[in-house]
Amino acid sequence: MMNRFVNWLKNNTVLTLVIVVALASLADIAWVYSSGLALRKQMQERLTEAQRITSRLKTPVSIPSKNPDDPAQTVNIPVNNKAISELESAYNKMASEYERIFENALAINKAGHLPMIEGLFPDPGIENFDKPWDAKIKYKKALAEMLMPPSPAPTYPRLDATMPPSPDELKEAFDEVQSRYLNSKFPPKKLEELTPDEKVELSNLLAKRKIELTTQRAKLAHIYARTFDPDSNIIPADFPLQVDPWVVSSGRPPMDEIWEGQMTLWVQQDIVRAISMTNQTDTPGTDLVTSPIKRLVTIQVIPGYVGIDTVGGIKTQPPSAPNPPTTSNSTGGSPSTFSPTHREGYGGVSTAEASAAVSGDIKLKDDFSRSPTGRRSNTLYDVKHAWVVMDMDSQKLPAFFENLNRVNFQTCLKMRIDAIDEYEALQNGYLYAGGDVVRVSILIESIWLRDWTTPLMPKQTRIRLGIDKPEETTAQPTTN
Questions:
Q1: How many other β-carbons are positioned within 10 Å of the β-carbon of residue 477?
Q2: 376 to 246, 338, 347, 463: CA distances (angstroms)
Q3: Is position 39 within any domain?
Q4: Which of 325, 353, 362, 433 has its CA at a distance of 20 to 30 angstroms from the CA of residue 222?
Q5: Which domain holds residue 346?
Q6: Burial letters for 383-409: b for 16+ Cβ neighbours within 10 Å, e otherwise?
């Protein structure tokens, strides 16, 4: 058998070589496969080790977004002394910048906002029992001062207000013109003796005199607005600034109502300052004729704190006239009758959010149902809304908006513009010279940082805003 196989191989040399080569190839393939498995295992081990080393060199770090409203970004960085030092420096710089920005904002927000009476807030105590009564007088004097002529060092901004000549003043001037005209005739005539042409001539003289008086009055002030005597307890019906009812009520007003009056005074003070800046009241050579804002009709501060116990003024219509106070003790939403449990019903912040300490730890949700800004009262600041109604040159509205923003971060939320018949206004003694004068009604938003207002707030106000919890009272057992 073996000889046959050998003879076959000798007779089939080529085929034998092919078989030998094929067998050798199979052996090589087996060796390569075996070596490949070993190499693959070795490479996997090296990759695992490299990943382990990389994971130790880098770690995820939270980096604040460029947009403060966006969430923080997570990036991987190598962990070494240099990286740690750079991160620490960056965070320290951010903290320092935040503190500086907040300090500047706090200084702007607090500037010029002094309590009516030193030591009045949060509670004058029994030793200063009369201070709440004194606050009534001080409040009225503050409002009266805002309408006075400029002063070198005023406590409050001033508008330098006046009113058109009164009917009595016009009658006195007309009587003088008429008497002089009748006596100029020879012989002197009585009114009923004048000819038709003479009556027309007299009528023109009276109209001319009225314009002269109106112009003279306008050159003596910077804005039309009703003033009043702060020593009087009677507030004129057309007085443009808001006077809270507690000011003209009898009795000792509660401290929380006085605080609301203080807030109302500050809000009006800022609006008045913006008007004064627009009219350049302190600049020599300016007057009502050159003033962009011709007449202050009214300022009305909406009661309450937006987002806590009121939805603000975004859904309200502008007032058409001043709203003089009554002698009632109620403020139409009196702070003394407010219950913190009503907060949710007013569409306010949650109980936990409202009662939290003043801090930046809570992410505040925008609520655009309150205003275009979405701002509402929270643990950092309170939000107040107020209407101002003015007659002004429509071309100067941008300047007024700029001044609003410069004074305590005030923002225009809503505006309505109505046409004015300037000839009818002139008949009523209002000289609207220069530009296209319209009636502008603006809803203004202002913010008040709690960092400086909270220490001044009376106890009841702090409870109302959720800063303090109501004091629990223990019921005393009854005996028969």
A1: 5
A2: 26, 18, 10, 18
A3: no
A4: 325
A5: 111-160+221-362+370-464
A6: bbbbbbbbbbbeebbebbbebbeebbb
- The predicted model gives 136-164 an average pLDDT of 94
Taking phi first (over 0 means left), then psi (-120 to 50 degrees means alpha), and beta for anything else, what does residue 45 get?
alpha
Structure tokens at 130: 């009369």
Helix (H, G, I), strand (E, B) or coil at 386: strand
Q: From 136, 384, 340, 130, select the one nearest 258 (Cα to Cα).
A: 136
Map tokens 């008045």 to a residue.
272
How far apart are alpha carbons 104 and 368 in whole angstroms? Answer: 27
Determine contact, residues 378/467, Cβ cutoff 8 Å: no
Tell me the CB-side half-sphere exposure of residue 194, using CA atoms within 13 A: 18
Q: Does 7 map to a domain?
A: no
In tens, the pLDDT along 336-352 reads 333 333 333 333 444 44
Helix axes 255-279, 131-145, angle to 10 degrees: 10
Q: What is the C-alpha separation between 441 and 237, in angstroms, rounded?
A: 19
The pLDDT assigned to 30 comes to 55
Place of tokens 């020593």: 231
CA-CA distance, 478 to 244, in Å (whole number)? 42
Residue 233 lies in a domain: yes
Give CA 116 to chain center in angstroms: 22
Which residues pair with residue 59 across a beta bridge? Answer: 77
The pTM (predicted TM-score) of the whole model is: 0.77
Specify whether the backbone of 117 is left (phi greater than 0), alpha (psi in -120 to 50) or beta: beta
Contact 9, 17 (CB under 8 A): no
CA distances from 267 to 60, 264, 272, 462 (A): 47, 5, 9, 19
User: Is pLDDT of 21 > 70?
Assistant: no
The set of residues, in sequence order, having a beta carbon less than 8 Å from that of 166 and lying 6+ positions away, is: none
CB 329 within 8 A of CB 260: no
Tokens describing residue 342:
């009503």
> Which stretches of 69-115 are DSSP H helices?
81-110
Cβ atoms within 10 A of the Cβ of 169, count?
13
**Cβ distance 62 to 72 under 8 Å?**
yes
CA distances from 176 to 172, 187, 204 (A): 6, 18, 14
Residue 16: the pLDDT is 61
- For residue range 263-273, list pLDDT tens digits in order: 999 999 999 99
How many Cα atoms sit within 13 Å of 44 on the Cβ side? 6
387 within a domain of the structure (yes/no): yes
